[in-house]
Design brief:
Layout: H1 2-7, H2 15-23, H3 30-40, H4 44-64, E1 74-76, E2 83-85, H5 87-96, H6 100-103, H7 119-123
Antiparallel strand pairs: 1-2
Helix pairs in contact: 3-4
Length: 132
């Protein structure tokens, strides 16, 4: 859901409204039906199928936005009976980053949105910096 908002260049609301907001987005809302199927599924295989369909829909949207993609963003998860995001997705995106300041950031640290949903923190960058 966050990726859909990012691709639409829309600020995602906090968790309570995230799914509702996704369904209202003009293009990435197409992934909402698949994600709803995943949440409503009775078993893990149906849940996984919904997540895979949502991932593939967002991959098509990412391609439409002119961002690098791979043919299929899904691969088996090692030797287990599950599917996950293909590592090549991460590799092609990382290789496309040209800004040296962004490239210098530590891999895998994430963003403030992964740590907090506090609007004050997310909308005021000074609140995210350590005090001297």
């Amino acid at each position: 859901m966050h990726l859909g908002h990012l691709l639409e260049r829309r600020w995602p609301p906090y968790a309570k409204w995230l799914g509702t907001s996704l369904t209202r987005l003009p293009r990435s809302g197409a992934a909402a039906e698949a994600l709803h199927a995943a949440v409503a599924a009775d078993g893990w295989r149906e849940r996984e199928a919904g997540l895979v369909a949502g991932l593939r829909a967002l991959n098509r949207m990412q391609e439409g936005a002119g961002l690098p993609t791979v043919d299929d963003p899904v691969e088996p998860f090692w030797d287990r009976p599950y599917r996950g995001v293909r590592e090549a997705v991460i590799v092609v995106l990382e290789k496309s980053v040209e800004d040296p300041a962004v490239r210098a950031l530590p891999r895998g640290v994430g963003s403030a949105e992964q740590w907090s949903d506090n609007v004050d923190v997310l909308t005021r960058s000074g609140r995210r910096r350590p005090s001297p």
